[in-house]
Amino acid sequence: MGRARLLVSDFVVSFMWVWSGVLIKQFSTYLGLNHQPLLEIVKATLSVMNMFFFAWLGKLTHGGAYNPLTILADAISGDFSNFLFCVGARIPTQVIGSITGVRFIINTLSGVGSGPRLNIDIHRGALTEGFLTFAIVTISLGLASKLHGSFYRKTWISSISKLTLHILGSDLTGGCMNPASVMGWAYARGDHITKEHILVYWLAPIEATLLAVWVFKLLVKPAIEEETSTKSKSD
């Protein structure tokens, strides 16, 4: 029953996530701001507020997530049964939730765009998404292991990091770092099985996630454990 509820949570959260991105763009357009810097500040503020809301929603649903990379990083460190559940059930559920959300958006709103697109060649696109994913997964692992304390402080650091990385990659690949969300839009366009989509938005981020977990375990985690052990002895 617990796993079934988690799958429902993943579907709902993924569905809501694609909607939230569109609503932020629509609301920013509705404001009719003429100054580009001011418009970007408003969009950035709304994006951070949105990530705080979904972080709270994840706690409320006891782990409901919208990004396959987040749960994959956790599953790699867990037991094999949880890994199979993540790959075989949770990630497909997130993809279905995103596809359903995009379908509802297209049928409900007009002129909302067609989602992120690759604006550079496939190899540089894969490197870009891979680098962005490696950075955010490493930051997330560090926050989970190193930083103890306030939920709001962790969420603030995570949100600002994601927003910064998204801005860095937005003109190149969309700065997505979320294969399920991209899949929803790609499926609606009919290019979800192209080489560009699979390599840039799936294989590169997944490989970067695996590399980030491995590097974190090899280099960062021993230092954290040693520091914790030293503090315990001094106390």
Could you explain the architecture of this structure?
With 235 residues, this protein is mainly α. The chain has a single domain (2-229), classed as Glycerol uptake facilitator protein (Up-down Bundle), CATH 1.20.1080.10. The chain is built from eight helices and no strands. α5 (122-145) packs antiparallel against α6 (151-169) and α5 (122-145) packs parallel to α8. The mean pLDDT is 87. Pfam families: MIP. It comes from Senna tora. GO terms for molecular function: channel activity. It is found in: Membrane. It is a multi-pass membrane protein.
Mean pLDDT: 87
Helix and strand sequence: HHHHHHHH
Rg, rounded, reads: 18 Å
How many individual domains? 1
What distance separates the N and C termini? 43 Å
Overall number of strands: 0
The major pleated sheet works out as: none
Anisotropy-based shape: globular
Structural class: mainly alpha
CATH fold title: Glycerol uptake facilitator protein
Main location: membrane
Membrane topology: Multi-pass membrane protein
Protein name: Putative aquaporin SIP2-1
Pfam family, one: MIP
